[in-house]
Amino acid sequence: MSLTGTPFFLTSVTLLIVAFVLPLALWGRIAGPPLARGLGRLLMLLFAQVTALTVVFVLVNNANNLYDTWGDLLGTGSHVEAARDLGPDGMGGQQIKNEPKQLQQFRPADDPRVGPGVQMTELKGRISGVLGEVYVWLPPQYNDPAYRNKKFPVVELLPGYPGSAKSWLGSLHVAEQLQPLMQRGQVKPAILVAPRTNILPGADTGCVNIPGKVNADSWLTVDVRKMILDNFRAGNKADSWALAGYSAGAHCAAKLALAHPDRYRAAVAMSGYNDPALERDSLAGKDPKLRVESNPMHILQSANAAGKPPRTALYVSGAAGDGYQAGIGLRQLAKYPTTVDVQQISSGAGGHTTVVWRHQVPQIFHWLGMKLRA
Questions:
Q1: What is the CA radius of gyration of the chain?
Q2: Four-CA torsion 142, 143, 145, 148, nearest 10 degrees
Q3: Can you state the angle between helices 174-183 and 354-371, rounded to 10 degrees?
Q4: What percent of the chain has pLDDT over 90?
Q5: CB 79 within 8 A of CB 132
Q6: Cβ pair 348, 315 in contact under 8 A
Q7: Against a cut of 0.85, is the pTM above it?
Q8: pLDDT at 242 over 80
C-alpha cells in the first residue's frame, strides 16, 4: 500500500475509529484475572495512541510531501546505481554534446494532489548513476500552435530535506498558481521540472558529488537537464535555465547555480543557508573539505579571486535567522556580473513552512521571468 495514497489514509482513519470504539465497547467486558484485564486495557490504549499518531503523521506528510515511499520513510531505499569519480566538472571526461539522446516515456502523474497536466518519468542517469522519478509541467503556451516553433525556459524545483519531488507541485501548488498568471501574460511561460533529490537513505546529499557514494550534483545539473533538452522544446543555453528551492533545496539552488554558471543563469533560495552543516544529515556538512567547497559563499569568493565572478542572478528570501543573513552574506560578496536580491520575510509570516514558501511563488516567478529567456 502506497505511503501517500488515499487507501493508506482511509485505512489509518478507519483503524483510529476502531481504536476509540474498542475501549468503549469492551472496557468492562474483559474477563479473566486482574492482570489479564489490565493488560488488555493497556493494549487498547496503546493501539489508540499508535493509530492517532499515524493519522497525524499521514496528514502532515501528505500536506508537506516529506516522504514519498516507504523506503524513503524507513531509510531503506537507495536510488544510486553507481557513483564513479566524475572529476571537477561532474562529467567524468565526457562531453554532453556527444551523448546520444535519451528519449523517455512519460505518463500522467500518479498522485492527483500535484494537479492536472503534470507528467512523470523514471530517469536512469547515464552520467550520475542515479535512478529516480522526474515530474514535468508544461506551460499553457507549450501546445499552442502559435508557439510551435518556440523554445521555453526551464526551472528546476528542489524541495527541502526530507522532501518529495512532488513538494513544489503538491504542497506549494506552483503549477496551479502559475497557470492563470502565464495565460494572462503576467508571468513568463516556463517548463517546470521537479526531480527526485532524496536519493540516499537517511541522508541529505547536499547536492554534491562524492565518489563511491553519490553523484547528486551531476544528477541534477547534467542528467536531468539533458533529459529535458532531449524530450521537450527547451532552451539549451544557460540563459534559459534556473533553479528554485526552499530550505535544503535553497542551499542546493544557490550552490549549483554559482558552481555552474555555464548551465544556469539564475536561482531562487527561500529560507536556506550557506553552511551545509546546518542540516545535521548533510553529507557535505559532515565532510570538512566538502563543507567549505559546497558553501555558496566560498564558491563566490573563489570565483571572485580568480577574476571570474559568475554571471549568476540570485534571489534570496528568508526571515531573520532563517535565510535572510545567508542572503546578506552573498550580496556583500557579489561583484558584477553576479547579482543578489535579498527579500526579508517577517518572522511572523508563518515560520519555516510550506505556507510561507507557497505565498512567494508568484513573486519569485515574476523575478525569474525577468532573468530568463528561451
A1: 23
A2: 50
A3: 40
A4: 69
A5: yes
A6: no
A7: yes
A8: yes
What pLDDT was estimated at residue 143? Answer: 95
Whole-number Å distance between alpha carbons of 131 and 311? 31
Q: Tell me the C-alpha to C-alpha distance, in Å, between residue 72 and each of 44, 52, 311, 371.
A: 30, 22, 36, 35
CB 163 within 8 A of CB 249: yes
The model's pLDDT over 22-74, given as tens digits with 9 standing for 90+, comes to 777 777 777 778 887 778 778 877 877 888 787 787 777 666 666 666 666 66
As a whole number of angstroms, the distance between CA 90 and CA 240 comes to: 20
The pLDDT of 348-366, averaged and rounded, is 95
Q: Are 274 and 296 in contact (CB under 8 A)?
A: yes
Burial zone of 184 (CB within 10 Å; 0-12 exposed, 13-18 middle, 19+ buried): exposed
> Which pLDDT band holds residue 210 (cuts at 50, 70, 90)?
very high
| Per-residue confidence (pLDDT) for residue 245, from 0 to 100 | 98
Indicate the average pLDDT of the chain.
90
Say how many C-beta atoms besides its own lie within 10 A of residue 86's C-beta.
20
CB atoms within 10 A of CB 304: 15
Please provide the size of the chain in residues: 374
By the 10 Å C-beta count (0-12 exposed, 13-18 middle, 19+ buried), 33 is classed as: exposed
Q: Are 43 and 27 in contact (CB under 8 A)?
A: no
- Listed in order, strand segments (DSSP E) in the chain are 107-108, 118-124, 131-137, 154-158, 191-195, 209-210, 214-215, 241-246, 266-270, 313-318, 339-344
- For 310, the grid coordinates are 559568475
Cβ count within 10 A of residue 195: 25
| Half-sphere CA count of 59, side-chain side, radius 13 A | 7
Pairing of strands 214-215, 209-210: antiparallel
**Cα-Cα-Cα-Cα dihedral sign, residues 67, 71, 74, 75:** negative
Query: What is the band of 3 on the pLDDT scale with cuts at 50, 70, 90?
Result: low
Listing DSSP states for 207-267 in one string gives T-EETTTEEHHHIIIIIHHHHHHHHS-B--SGGGEEEEEETHHHHHHHHHHHH-TTT-SEE
CA atoms within 13 A on the CB side of 180: 5
